[in-house]
Amino acid sequence: MRIELKGLEHAYSKTDKALDGVDLVLEGSEPVAIIGQNGAGKTTLVKHFNGILRPTGGSVEINGVDINTRSTAEWSREVGYVFQNPDDQLFLESVRKEFEFGPRQIGMDADTIARRVNEVAELTGLSKKLDVHPFDLTPTEKKFCTIGAVIMMDPAAVIFDEPTCGQDRSGNARLKTIIERLRGQGKLCITISHDMKFVTANFSRVIVMCHGTVLLDGSVNEVFAQTDILRRSFITPPPITRVAQGAGLKETVFTVPAFINAITKERNHHG
Q1: Cα 75–157–253 angle (5° rounding)?
Q2: What is the pLDDT of residue 11?
Q3: 35 membership: H or E segment, kind and range
Q4: Residue 197 and residue 26: Cα distance in Å, rounded?
Q5: Is 28 exposed, middle or buried (0-12, 13-18, 19+ CB in 10 A)?
Q6: CA–CA separation, 235 and 67 (whole Å)
Q7: Average pLDDT in the 237-258 region?
Q8: What is the Cα–Cα distance from 124 to 130, expressed in whole angstroms?
Q9: Average confidence (pLDDT) over 60-78
Q10: pLDDT, average across residues 101-127
């Protein structure tokens, strides 16, 4: 999967330019996190990846094909979108029906659907809830129901909009497993998140947006080392990262063991 943006612009009105000339290439199966304060243009950006929004300037190409040549319904086979609010996505009377709906629309055969329902239910932790009405699920289960419904379609790329919102630790651990599984299948995971601990633990590439432009794009270590630029975009690194930076450690760390390791290395170096 390759998503290429060339000078992408999106204006909701004459005075409100949400995206201002974005050039980006997302490809392969390396998971990508898109971060930035509210109003930075993150959701507007990813809604162009399957045609929910169309460019008002510049272009979006999916595997070399211009986004404007196909409908959103056609693109959703290739690029799945998990909305921030599950209630925007759930509309059927059981988890099973939610899972089966998309694949049926695209002509997946019954045996494949049945096999995938079991696989995806296990992955999303909903094996015992397949015959439950989605509105009787907990908020966390609802979120995983929408994730499952999108994965069922077997898209080449999956966009998660704030997936950790309202999640507990076990929910975050399950999300990590899902992202790893999709990566193992060669799929591209693109995630918008405000949760920096989740970002640093799961994503090797991070894109920072500010006022509709890309401020930084690089490895997680490179990006979180740029403290001044991050401050400009109102992004706060995880607490342990800030402690390490405050202590003057040269290495960018995201976990306590890495912090201890970095201190030991510096001590040995100076010792």
Answers
A1: 150
A2: 94
A3: strand 32-35
A4: 22
A5: middle
A6: 31
A7: 88
A8: 11
A9: 94
A10: 96
Residue 129 CA to its chain's centroid (Å): 25
Instruction: Fill in the DSSP letter of residue 194.
Output: S
The answer to whether residues 98 and 171 touch, using CB atoms and an 8 Å cutoff, is no
- Mind giving me the DSSP string for 50-117? TTSS--SEEEEEETTEEGGGS-HHHHTTTEEEE-SSGGGT--SSSHHHHHHHHHHHTT--HHHHHHHH
Of the candidates 116, 111, 141, the residue with the CA atom closest to the CA atom of residue 129: 141
Check residue 13 and give its pLDDT.
86
How far apart are alpha carbons 133 and 97 in whole angstroms? Answer: 9
- Polymer length of the chain: 271
The residues near 97 (Cβ < 8 Å, ≥ 6 apart) are none
Q: Residues 175, 105, 94, CA angle at the centre, nearest 5°?
A: 55
Query: In Å, how far are 244, 270, 271 from 267, measured between CA atoms?
Result: 14, 5, 6
Distance, CA of 47 to CA of 244 (rounded, Å): 36
Contact criterion met (CB below 8 Å) for 161 and 43: yes
Which amino acid type is present at position 136? D
Strands 17-27 and 2-11: antiparallel
Q: Does domain 2-234 have CATH number 3.40.50.300?
A: yes
Contacts of 267 (CB under 8 A, 6+ apart): none
199 half-sphere exposure, CB direction, 13 A CA radius: 29
How far is it, in rounded angstroms, from Cα 164 to Cα 142? 12
pLDDT > 70: what percent of the chain? 100
List where CATH 3.40.50.300 sits in the chain. 2-234
pLDDT at 270 over 80: no
pLDDT band for 271, please (50, 70, 90 cuts): low
